[in-house]
Amino acid sequence: MKRFAVCLLYFLTFNACAADLNLLTDNHPPLHFQQGGELVGFGVDVVQALAQRTGDRIHLQQLPFLRALHIAASEPDTAVFTVLRTAERDDLYQWVGPLLDIETALYSADSSRQPVRSLLEAGTHGAIAMPRKWLAYNYLQKQGLDNLYGVETPEQMMRLARLGRADYVVADTLSVAALAREEGLPPGQLHYQIPLMQQGSYIAFSRQTDAREVARWQLALDQMRQDGSLERLKQRWLSTNIPR
Question: CA-CA 20 to 30 A from 67: which of 49, 88, 110, 133?
Answer without folding.
Answer: 49
